[in-house]
């Protein structure tokens, strides 16, 4: 069995004496920082220009425009900004100075956008958020170069936090993110079906990494005072729910079909939780589905519509889709229970986090 090691050095959380008003902590209008675009704060050689409408825009030297073009393309696509809203929700409980808060938002956004560029390239995805994936417009080489350049810029933001502890946290979680992705890619390439336990541990590395990074950085720079509280369980549950929900929606959601293509996970040969459930309880039929899924690797093309419909029907009939949905409902209830426990412990309601959970309910 594959062994996973997640290095999660949780920090203590202290209750604030002067809690902010949760109603005021709403997602602000899209800015270079909030959208994940690299702004003048993170780019050398930039200067502000005033447009005719009075708004300012960031201009860069020609070489910066070129290296950032792929990154700024994906950062400019419509997004629900769940991770930024999550940070605002955590800030109700764990207060940090405003400049620190903006730096943590920037670090998270840049890591998220650059990871999407890598993911789409490694998964050979053609669509992202209903638009062409970055490498479809700029090519693999330029996409990789731009994503790495953006990734390097996160180190500048981490330096602004001016703490050896935050640097250690950043490196720790960055390693976890890449380890999680490596397992995902390994399983797909070698046609290995992991256990449910192995899959959950992969999520803890990959999807849970960014959520955990936000919380750990905020804990390290907290100016709150009060009782020591632990958020590890809530963050772990949220990361797992987020990934499994994505697995389910990829196969069942019309919105996902529009944005990523019908059952795109089948095109990628991705090992998702519904597929794992199916493989666990099927006999010879599972070999047929496995043959269809992994035959695409040799051809380099996506699966024909008829084959994807065949696989989806098999997974539905088998009960794997229903089992995945039932798990999501249980996890959602567990998240609400844990949220309410934390609200009672902090002595402060968190409408932002509750709003996220409400929107994510399947």
From TrEMBL:
* Family annotation (PANTHER family): GERANYLGERANYL PYROPHOSPHATE SYNTHASE, THIJ_PFPI FAMILY PROTEIN (AFU_ORTHOLOGUE AFUA_3G01210)-RELATED
**Pfam families per UniProt:** polyprenyl_synt (PF00348)
Q: What molecular function terms (GO) are annotated for this protein?
A: lyase activity; metal ion binding; prenyltransferase activity
The keyword Lyase is assigned to this record = yes
Species per Swiss-Prot/TrEMBL record = Aspergillus oryzae (strain ATCC 42149 / RIB 40)
PROSITE patterns per UniProt: POLYPRENYL_SYNTHASE_1, POLYPRENYL_SYNTHASE_2
Q: Which SUPFAM superfamilies match?
A: Terpenoid synthases
Q: Any idea what this protein is called?
A: DNA, SC012
Query: Which pathway does the UniProt entry assign to this protein?
Result: Secondary metabolite biosynthesis; terpenoid biosynthesis
Q: Does the keyword Transferase apply?
A: yes
Amino acid composition bias (Basic residues), ranges on this chain: 1-14
What residue spans carry the Polar residues bias annotation? 32-46
């Amino acid at each position: 069995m594959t062994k996973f090691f997640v290095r999660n050095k949780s920090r203590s959380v202290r209750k604030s004496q002067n809690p902010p008003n949760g109603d005021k902590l709403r997602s602000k209008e899209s800015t270079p920082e909030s959208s994940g675009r690299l702004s003048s704060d993170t780019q050398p050689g930039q200067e502000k220009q005033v447009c005719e409408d009075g708004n300012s825009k960031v201009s860069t030297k020609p070489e910066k425009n070129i290296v950032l073009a792929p990154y700024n393309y994906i950062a400019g696509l419509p997004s629900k900004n769940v991770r930024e809203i999550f940070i605002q929700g955590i800030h109700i409980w764990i207060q940090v100075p405003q400049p620190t808060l903006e730096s943590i938002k920037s670090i998270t956004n840049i890591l998220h956008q650059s990871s999407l560029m890598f993911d789409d390239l490694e998964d050979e995805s053609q669509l992202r958020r209903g638009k062409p994936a970055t490498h479809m417009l700029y090519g693999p080489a330029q996409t990789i170069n731009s994503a790495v350049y953006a990734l390097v810029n996160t180190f500048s933001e981490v330096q602004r936090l001016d703490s050896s502890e935050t640097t250690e946290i950043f490196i720790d979680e960055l390693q976890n993110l890449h380890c999680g992705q490596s397992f995902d890619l390994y399983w797909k390439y070698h046609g290995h079906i992991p256990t449910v336990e192995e899959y959950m541990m992969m999520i803890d590395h990959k999807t849970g990494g960014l959520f955990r990074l936000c919380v750990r950085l905020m804990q390290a720079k907290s100016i709150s005072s009060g009782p020591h509280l632990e958020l590890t369980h809530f963050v772990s549950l949220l990361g797992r729910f987020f990934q499994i929900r994505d697995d389910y929606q990829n196969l069942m959601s019309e919105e996902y079909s529009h944005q990523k293509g019908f059952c795109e996970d089948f095109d990628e040969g991705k090992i998702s939780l519904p597929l794992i459930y199916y493989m666990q309880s099927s006999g010879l039929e599972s070999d047929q589905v496995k043959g269809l899924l992994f035959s695409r690797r040799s051809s380099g093309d996506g699966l024909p519509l008829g084959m994807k419909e065949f696989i989806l029907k098999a997974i539905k009939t088998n009960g794997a889709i229903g089992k995945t949905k039932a798990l999501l409902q249980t996890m959602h209830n567990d998240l609400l229970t844990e949220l309410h426990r934390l609200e009672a412990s902090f002595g402060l309601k968190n409408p932002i986090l509750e709003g996220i959970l409400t929107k994510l309910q399947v």
